């Protein structure tokens, strides 16, 4: 029995609990797909039919999407089902467990086994990490490969193993992470100064060149794809946004951006919606979580200045990563855009909070120990609240419009009823329709917002169709404007409302929006 509960096995019990939590959430509130995830699902289906994508797939999507698509395609082939949100998201769940285990291994090697176990336990239930572990968008794969790169950073800086091999692998795994998604560039902005200091600013050192060469090799697919297909909008691939890497007047914007980060964006990130949009009103549970993070930072700084302890160098590096990452974020156009750019910080946030709990609960003073236990219970209570909200979530975000999770299935039923197979609609609804209907419904993306590179084959098929419909979210200004346009020009048509959508069909004169 003692062997069964040996401390070396405890991480596997944590992994089992983490998997159980994720499966429960996946089968309750997280099995629905949004438009971005629909693209990955369509890609996976096409892989089962012989396609072999390596980068973008008619849209701006990176290697993380490709990895997810190939793994989902394998599950599609095993089951014969090619429009399942559960099968699509299972590979991301597995990758989230790999991130958890890698965080444990890094903390165990460069700090202590106790700290590693607590870090793994926190990651098992942490709301932002949980939520990103259901998002088919390349985020979790980016974190994994960047964390793998960080392992070699620790070998170089903490253990002093400054070898050519370690520099190369550090660069290579960062490059793979960059191929997965653009926010890996935040890691690079921190690693380069680290290594320049490590090598005494000798730019001709072979180690630095191997680090750069490894990065190029790891992201080679992305580089080739940019050269062939993306000459005019390279910044989109690097940042994930229609912007440059640097803002104009960046120096004057730092104080305001940092103020928003610490008073709104970072606490807003620590919740269940930490993917695309910052919530306007930060929930109380997120403020509690944020308070624990601030306490953890204060505790870490105090311990670094007062005493020596296992993992001191790892904690110092984690604090530097946290601080420098936030400053770089404040300088770039990413600031205020999306919580996803904070996801790269999450392993470091968890390590720091774990140190807070280990330090307090391990104290010889009873009052301090009880405080640590109270804070630990508070942490798990907050995560339980967020997990419960995720389990009962029945909505997806279509751009910034909140829609019912099952609305597309009801829309497909109506389109089948009226005999329409081709649809003009918005970007996110387009991919949900194509994926969830198993391509029985083909949709084209209306130019309702920023110019988005379209998937040509679908656009052509819809444009050539005679019997088509226009589908718009009922609550949007686009639906109101289109309806008014038809009325003002007296274009005969029929319309029906189903779930969150208004469907315009039998439009006179083959009128195209």
Q: How would you describe the overall organization of this protein?
A:
There is one protein chain. The chain is of the alpha/beta class and 513 residues long. Helices cover 63% and strands 6% of the residues. The strands form two sheets. It has a five-stranded mixed β-sheet, sandwiched between helices. It has a two-stranded antiparallel sheet with strand order 1-2. Strand 3, helix 19 and strand 4 form a beta-alpha-beta unit.
Based on CA inertia axes, which overall geometry fits?
A: globular
Biggest β-sheet: strands ordered side by side in the sheet: 4-3-5-7-6
The N- to C-terminal Cα distance equals 70 Å
The SS-based structural class is alpha/beta
Radius of gyration from the alpha-carbon trace, in angstroms? 24 Å
Strand content: 5-15%
Helix content: 55-70%
Q: Runs with pLDDT <50, length 5+? A: 448-453
Order of helices and strands: HHHHHHHHHHHHHHHHHEEHEHEHEHEE
Largest beta-sheet characterization: 5 strands, mixed
Number of helices: 21
How many distinct beta strands? Answer: 7
Mean pLDDT: 85
Compact summary:
With 513 residues, the protein is α/β, with parallel strands linked by helices.
Any key phrases for this structure?
alpha/beta, five-stranded mixed beta sheet, 63% helix, 513 residues, two-stranded antiparallel ribbon, 7 strands
Present the secondary structure layout.
Blueprint: H1 10-28, H2 35-48, H3 63-79, H4 85-110, H5 113-125, H6 127-132, H7 139-157, H8 164-180, H9 185-198, H10 206-218, H11 220-229, H12 234-239, H13 250-269, H14 284-306, H15 312-331, H16 346-361, H17 366-391, E1 395-398, E2 401-404, H18 407-418, E3 422-425, H19 427-436, E4 442-445, H20 456-464, E5 468-473, H21 477-488, E6 494-498, E7 501-505
Parallel strand pairs: 3-4, 3-5
Antiparallel strand pairs: 1-2, 5-7, 6-7
């Amino acid at each position: 029995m003692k062997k069964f509960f040996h401390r070396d096995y405890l991480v596997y019990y944590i992994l089992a609990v983490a998997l159980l939590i994720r499966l429960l959430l996946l089968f309750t509130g997280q099995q629905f797909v949004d438009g971005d995830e629909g693209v990955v699902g369509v890609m996976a289906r096409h892989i089962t039919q012989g396609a072999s994508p390596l980068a973008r797939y008619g849209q701006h999507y990176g290697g993380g999407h490709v990895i997810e698509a190939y793994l989902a395609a394998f599950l599609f082939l095993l089951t014969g089902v090619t429009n399942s949100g559960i099968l699509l998201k299972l590979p991301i769940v597995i990758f989230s467990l790999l991130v958890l285990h890698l965080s444990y291994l890094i903390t165990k090697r460069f700090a202590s086994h106790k700290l590693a176990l607590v870090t793994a336990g926190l990651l098992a239930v942490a709301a932002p990490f949980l939520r990103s572990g259901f998002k088919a968008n390349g985020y979790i794969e980016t974190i994994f490969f960047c964390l793998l790169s960080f392992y070699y950073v620790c070998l170089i800086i903490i253990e002093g193993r400054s070898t050519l091999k370690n520099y190369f692998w550090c660069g290579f795994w960062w490059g793979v992470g960059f191929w997965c998604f653009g926010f890996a560039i935040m890691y690079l902005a921190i690693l380069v100064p680290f290594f320049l200091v490590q090598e005494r600013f000798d730019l001709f050192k072979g180690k630095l060149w191997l680090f750069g060469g490894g990065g190029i090799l790891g992201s080679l697919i992305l580089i080739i794809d940019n050269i062939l297909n993306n000459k005019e909008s390279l910044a989109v691939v690097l940042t994930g946004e229609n912007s440059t890497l640097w803002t104009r007047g960046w120096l004057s914007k730092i104080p305001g951006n940092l103020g928003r980060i610490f008073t709104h964006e970072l606490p807003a990130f620590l919740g269940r919606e930490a993917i695309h949009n910052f919530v306007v009103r930060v929930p109380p549970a997120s403020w509690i979580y944020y308070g624990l993070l601030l306490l953890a930072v204060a505790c870490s700084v105090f311990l670094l200045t007062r005493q020596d302890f296992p993992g001191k160098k790892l904690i110092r590096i984690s604090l530097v990563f946290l601080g420098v990452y936030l400053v770089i974020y404040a300088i770039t156009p990413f600031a205020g855009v999306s919580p996803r750019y904070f996801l790269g910080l999450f392993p470091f946030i968890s390590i720091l909070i774990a140190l807070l709990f280990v330090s307090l609960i391990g104290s010889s003073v009873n009052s301090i120990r009880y405080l640590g236990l109270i804070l630990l219970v508070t942490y798990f209570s907050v995560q339980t609240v967020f997990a419960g909200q995720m389990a009962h979530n029945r909505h997806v975000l279509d751009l910034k419009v909140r829609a019912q999770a099952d609305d597309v299935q009801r829309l497909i039923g109506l389109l089948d009823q009226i005999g329409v197979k081709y649809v003009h609609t918005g970007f996110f609804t387009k991919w949900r329709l194509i994926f969830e209907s198993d391509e029985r419904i083909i949709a084209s993306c209306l130019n309702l917002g920023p110019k988005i590179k379209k998937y040509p084959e679908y656009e052509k098929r819809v444009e050539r169709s005679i019997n088509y419909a226009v589908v718009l979210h009922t609550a949007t200004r686009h639906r109101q404007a289109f309806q008014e346009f038809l009325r003002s020009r007296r274009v005969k048509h029929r319309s029906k409302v189903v779930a969150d959508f208004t469907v315009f069909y039998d439009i006179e004169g083959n009128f195209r929006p």
